């Protein structure tokens, strides 16, 4: 694996930590205010999407072209649907939606990287 690929992974992890903390904070706050899981997930993902587009596009992949925004939005729709489905599957074992989301954070981060790097920012 070349040095450029390692740099992308490192930048993705660094941006991902900040993005994840922000998204989890908004999601958790929305849950604690009494919103259903599906709504809290939408609010958390929507609140972080603009920041994520800038951080992932400019910082991680070095490409912030607005032409990528529709693919980015569609990718987040797919990630949202996958995340919500997995939360529902986990519910019999982890009934608290905040803990469920914490458990899903690593696999969702990996899925996000794969989807964004291949479908949106086309990291080669």
Task: Outline the structure in words.
It is a single chain. The protein is an all-alpha fold. The chain has one domain (about 5-120). It contains four helices and no strands. It has helices at about 5-30, 35-60, 70-90, 95-120. The radius of gyration is 15 Å and the shape is globular.
The tally of domains stands at 1
Count of individual helical segments: 4
Taken as a percent bin, the fraction of beta residues is under 5%
> Any low-confidence stretches, pLDDT <50, length ≥5?
none
Distance between the termini: 12 Å
Instruction: Indicate the radius of gyration in whole angstroms.
Output: 15 Å
Order of SSEs: HHHH
For this structure, the quaternary state is: single chain
SS elements, strand count: 0
What's the average pLDDT? 87
Biggest sheet descriptor: none
Structural class: mainly alpha
Q: Globular, elongated, flat, extended or rod-shaped: what is the shape?
A: globular
Q: Tell me roughly what share of residues is in helical segments.
A: over 70%
SSE layout:
Blueprint (H helix, E strand, L loop, with lengths): L2 H30 L4 H24 L8 H22 L6 H24 L4
Helix pairs in contact: 1-2, 1-4, 2-3, 3-4
Question: Key features?
Answer:
4 helices, 81% helix, globular, 124 residues, mainly alpha
What's the short version?
The protein has helices at residues 3-32, 37-60, 69-90, 97-120. The protein contains 4 helices and no strands.
